[in-house]
């Protein structure tokens, strides 16, 4: 489980770095890629702790989406 989340953490950090350098297009593309990964991870999650950790990352990605796009995400995104 740890290696999955280490990779996820690195990918989220990459999104944050792209936002910091004002590269919103690349940040948004990376965010979409990581969101798809999270969707796959939650489909195959077997433990409650895993689901909780994935949910934390989903909340963070939603906040990053708002930061990049300057808008509130629509329900379901």
- What kind of assembly state do the chains in view correspond to? single chain
Described by strand count, sense and barrel closure, the largest sheet is: none
The sequence of SSEs as H and E is HHH
Question: Low-confidence parts, pLDDT < 50 over ≥5 residues?
Answer: none
Span between N and C termini? 25 Å
Q: Tell me the number of helical segments per DSSP (H or I, 4 or more residues long).
A: 3
> What is the share of helical residues?
over 70%
Calculate the mean pLDDT score and round it.
Answer: 91
- Summing up helix and strand content along with how strands pair, one would put the structural category as mainly alpha
Number of strands: 0
Shape: elongated
Assess the beta-strand content as a share of residues: under 5%
What is the C-alpha radius of gyration, as a whole number of Å?
A: 12 Å
Protein name: Phage protein
Account of the 3D structure:
With 77 residues, the protein is mainly alpha-helical. It is built from three helices and no strands. Helix content is 81%, strand content 0%. α1 (2-20) packs parallel to α3 (48-69) and α2 (24-44) packs antiparallel against α3 (48-69).
Give a brief description:
This protein is an all-alpha fold. 81% of the residues lie in helices and 0% in strands.
List the helices and strands and how they pair.
Blueprint: H1 2-20, H2 24-44, H3 48-69
Helix pairs in contact: 1-2, 1-3, 2-3
């Amino acid at each position: 489980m740890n290696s999955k989340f280490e990779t996820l953490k690195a990918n989220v950090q990459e999104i944050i770095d792209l936002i910091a350098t004002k590269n919103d297009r690349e940040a948004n593309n990376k965010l979409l890629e990581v969101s798809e990964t999270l969707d796959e991870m939650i489909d195959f999650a077997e433990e409650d702790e895993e689901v909780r950790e994935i949910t934390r990352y989903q909340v963070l990605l939603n906040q990053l989406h708002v930061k990049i796009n300057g808008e509130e995400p629509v329900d379901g995104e």
